[in-house]
């Protein structure tokens, strides 16, 4: 049997990694593990962990590793039993170096470590700031509309038709916070994958379809 294809997408806020993850999921028929989705779903349950996660999400802070990793692992368990599982694309995990180690161990445990591709959608800080201060969000379903390509022209949410607004959390100070967080927490992850010879760096400062083409090329080399 063919080994499942695991694609881990990394990138700064504004890099368009979420869009690329969605495209990969569609095009390759993969499952999707997005930490944002997992956390929002968990925050609906009003127990201790649900309430804590809701608080942390509202503050835009980082979720502690035990909480997010439990959710991630539950989702992986689900996929492990799925029929015709072809692989998954991961978006938003790992966010700390500890999580990168844990994911490595988990992929080994589940027998999925043979075909893992680590993609960094690379953009400069300047580009990230420019995009993030301009991107919009659907008032209704909270879908993020990136400030790139065709998305810039949208008047309504492509998913639900809802009204689009500028994100309140995209004030410049918060954008800078996120970039600082990328440097302290995510950069060590990038370095770790690079040192172990697994990092695939893709130029994220191109139109969406060109970024996607480069990713596909790199994945199927
Ligand atoms: Zn919407």
From TrEMBL:
Catalytic activity: AMP + ATP = 2 ADP
Key word Transport present: no
Domain of life: Bacteria
Keyword Amino-acid biosynthesis: no
GO molecular function, one term: AMP kinase activity
Binding, AMP: 35, 40, 61-63, 167, 178
Residues the record lists as binding ATP: 14-19, 135, 206
Pfam families from the UniProt entry: ADK
The protein's Enzyme Commission number: 2.7.4.3
Binding site residues for Zn(2+): 138, 141, 157, 160
Subcellular location: Cytoplasm
Major location (coarse): cytoplasm
GO CC annotation: cytoplasm
Domain comment as written in the entry: Consists of three domains, a large central CORE domain and two small peripheral domains, NMPbind and LID, which undergo movements during catalysis. The LID domain closes over the site of phosphoryl transfer upon ATP binding. Assembling and dissambling the active center during each catalytic cycle provides an effective means to prevent ATP hydrolysis. Some bacteria have evolved a zinc-coordinating structure that stabilizes the LID domain.
Quaternary structure and partners: Monomer.
Protein name: Adenylate kinase
Gene designation: adk
């Amino acid at each position: 049997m063919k080994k499942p294809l695991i694609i881990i997408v990394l990138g700064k806020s504004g890099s368009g990694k979420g869009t690329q993850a969605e495209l990969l999921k569609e095009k390759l028929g993969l499952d999707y593990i997005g930490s944002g989705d997992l956390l929002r779903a968990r925050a609906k349950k009003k127990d201790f962990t649900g309430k804590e996660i809701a608080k942390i999400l509202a503050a835009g802070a980082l979720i502690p590793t035990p909480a997010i990793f439990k959710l991630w692992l539950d989702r992986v368990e689900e996929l492990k039993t799925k029929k015709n599982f072809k692989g998954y694309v991961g978006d938003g995990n790992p966010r700390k170096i500890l999580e990168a180690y844990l994911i490595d161990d988990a992929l080994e445990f589940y027998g999925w470590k043979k075909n893992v591709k680590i993609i960094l959608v690379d953009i400069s800080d300047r580009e990230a700031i420019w995009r993030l201060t301009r991107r919009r969000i659907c008032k209704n379903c909270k879908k993020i509309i990136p400030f790139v390509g065709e998305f810039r022209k949208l008047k309504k949410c492509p998913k639900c038709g809802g009204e689009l607004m500028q994100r309140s959390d995209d004030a410049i100070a918060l954008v800078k916070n996120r970039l600082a967080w990328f440097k302290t927490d995510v950069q060590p992850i990038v370095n770790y994958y690079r040192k172990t010879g697994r990092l695939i760096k893709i130029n994220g400062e191109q139109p969406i379809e060109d970024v996607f083409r480069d990713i596909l090329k790199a994945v199927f080399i």
